[in-house]
Specification:
By secondary structure, this protein is mainly alpha-helical. The chain has helices at residues 3-33, 43-64, 66-69, 74-77, 92-99, 104-121, 128-134. Helix content is 69%, strand content 0%.
C-alpha cells in the first residue's frame, strides 16, 4: 500500500469517528434541552448528590496526591516561616539566608542539618545565631 492510500484510510476513519461523535453530542444536547421544571427538582436529593460528589473528589485527590492534601493547622501557619520542607520554625532572617544558598542540594543538606540540630537541642525557633552554628559541617 502506498502512503497516500494509508493516509486516505486514516483520514476516512477519523471522519467517521467525528461523525459518530457529532451525532452523540447532538443527542446529548437534545436530552439536556428536555430538562424538567426547576420546581420539580428534589432539592434534598440534589444536596445529597453534591455532598457525595464533594466527598468522592476529596477522597480521590487524597489517593492520587496525598502530600498536597495534608494541610497544616491554621495555628501552625501563623507561627511564621519554616525551614524549607520541615516543620521547624525559623526567623525571617534565617529564611532569607537559606534562600541565598545557590546550589539546591547544598541548600537542602544545610536545612536538614539545621533542622536536626534544632530538634536535638529543643530549639523552638531557629534564629540566625543558631543557624550559623548548626549549619557548619
Amino acid at each position: 500500500m502506498s502512503e497516500q492510500t494509508i493516509a486516505h484510510e486514516r483520514l476516512t476513519n477519523v471522519e467517521e469517528r467525528l461523525t459518530r461523535l457529532e451525532s452523540l453530542l447532538v443527542s446529548i444536547n437534545e436530552k439536556l434541552e428536555q430538562h424538567p421544571d426547576v420546581g420539580e427538582v428534589d432539592t434534598e436529593k440534589t444536596e445529597e448528590f453534591k455532598q457525595w460528589v464533594t466527598s468522592y473528589v476529596s477522597m480521590r485527590l487524597q489517593q492520587l496526591v496525598p502530600e498536597t492534601c495534608d494541610h497544616p493547622d491554621e495555628v501552625a501557619l501563623q507561627d511564621g516561616p519554616y525551614l524549607d520542607n520541615t516543620t521547624v520554625p525559623c526567623t525571617e532572617e534565617v529564611e532569607h539566608r537559606v534562600k541565598r544558598i545557590p546550589i539546591p542540594f547544598v541548600r537542602e543538606m544545610v536545612v536538614q542539618r539545621v533542622a536536626e540540630n534544632a530538634q536535638q537541642a529543643g530549639v523552638e525557633r531557629v534564629d540566625i545565631e543558631f543557624f550559623e552554628k548548626a549549619a557548619t559541617f
